[in-house]
Amino acid sequence: MPFEVEHQVEIPIDVFLRAKLKELEVAEVPYTDKKTGERKTFKKLNWVFEILENGEFWGKTVRAETPAYLSDGPNNQFRLWAEALLKRELDLGQVLNESDLVGLQGLIVCKREQDRKDENKYWTRVADVIPADPAGDDPPF
């Protein structure tokens, strides 16, 4: 199977891009408790957004990670992003499934994040999600 070298496209940061949530997956991450030495795990959500902008960014994907817990706290990223994609507030006690969110569209803004192990490597990650205007126009501001 032949492979062709492709042009590397750098997704812009601090710019709103129309995207849809392509995948949402719960991952269990193992770690060692520094105080007790005990092996533990925590859950996180892996988000994969596909850019829907015409041009060189079309179809490119951008990833993000958030805690996997859903709360009414003012900074709960899971809830804020879910509400942006659903275009409504969630009620206390409401239950969400991945299938409730996958395929929905919003506007994403990206950031560059330094690799934890290699200081010379950077990743493009989703920094925020806001509701998309149903008419398909620019952000509502």
Low-confidence stretches are none
Structural class: mainly beta
Summarize the biggest pleated sheet. 5 strands, antiparallel
What average pLDDT do the residues reach? 88
Number of helices: 2
Strand order of the largest sheet: 3-2-1-4-5
**Helix and strand element order:** EEEHHEE
| Rg over alpha carbons | 17 Å
- How much β-strand is present in the residues? 35-45%
State the total count of DSSP E strands. Answer: 5
Shape: globular
Distance between the termini: 48 Å
The portion of residues assigned to helices is under 10%
Written overview of the protein:
This protein has 141 residues and is mainly β. The protein is 10% helix and 40% strand. It contains two helices and five strands; from the N terminus they run βββααββ. The chain has a five-stranded antiparallel sheet with strand order 3-2-1-4-5. A hairpin with a 6-residue loop joins β1 and β2 (39-51). The protein is globular. The chain starts with 16 loop residues before the first strand and ends in a 10-residue tail after the last strand. The relative contact order is 0.22. The mean pLDDT is 88.
